[in-house]
Amino acid sequence: MDLARFIQIYIVQGLIGLFYIYMSYKVLRRDKKNLHLALCGFYVCVGLGVLINIIYASIFDETLVRLLHFMTYFLFCFCQVFLLIFVLILTKSENIITLRIQLILISSFGLLLSVLWFIPNGITINETTNWKPVWSWEFLIYSYIVCTLFTFGPLIYYSGKIYFKFETMELRKKWICFIIGIMAYYFVYYGTSLSNTLNDSTFRLIWSIISLIAIPTTYLIYYGVGREL
């Protein structure tokens, strides 16, 4: 395992994974309302994704590694729908964003992400790639389109609406922290996806260092709203 991948998996993602699992515990122990469960779902998915990623990093069976890598990426994308539900509940209340609507959003997004598995040669990870994931451009573009249109776009739109609803500067500052935390997560998502597609060793190393900013900034998701739930 080269330095770039070691940093990305065991330092960047390892620390983020531990942080997200701890945050899910802190949120869930307060209450089990839908709002809390949505935020907890986000943290749990990321934590599980990191755990799977660390496990398969030392496995050298092509079929198994490809499956586990897909599961990791699926969870890193799937967690985004829980952030969307969290923001929608804050915007419209649980009376409008009912459990039925939440399940429709979750299942629809899950089905759209599942298509990634069936893209021909979408993921290559074996001895020829030095056991690093290499994606096709079709895989990357489809992922970008689904996640941007289904979660990132609506998240930014509704987060902006919530910001302007707040009347006090203190609440607006807290919400800005939440938005920055979201942007940090998507920054890592977009950058890591591009790194796997470009498959350039120099870019991988540079990106693994740049993405270290995700460790402090993703805390802002919890700092902005989690402590006040």
Describe it for me?
The model has no long low-confidence stretch (mean pLDDT 88). Helix 1 (3-28) runs antiparallel to helix 2. The protein has helices at 3-28, 34-56, 62-92, 99-114, 137-165, 169-198, 201-210, 214-217, 219-225; strands spanning 123-124, 134-135. The chain has 9 helices and 2 strands; from the N terminus they run H-H-H-H-E-E-H-H-H-H-H. The protein has 229 residues and is mainly α. It has a two-stranded antiparallel sheet.
Strand portion? under 5%
**Gross geometry:** globular
Q: Which structural class is indicated by helix and strand composition?
A: mainly alpha
Along the chain, the helix and strand elements come as HHHHEEHHHHH
Q: What is the percent of helical residues?
A: over 70%
Given as residue ranges, the uncertain stretches (5+ residues, pLDDT < 50) are none
Q: What's the rounded overall pLDDT mean?
A: 88
State the separation between the terminal residues, measured CA to CA: 42 Å
Number of helices: 9
**Physical arrangement of strands within the biggest beta sheet:** 1-2
Q: Mind describing the biggest β-sheet?
A: 2 strands, antiparallel
Radius of gyration: 18 Å
Number of DSSP strand runs:
2
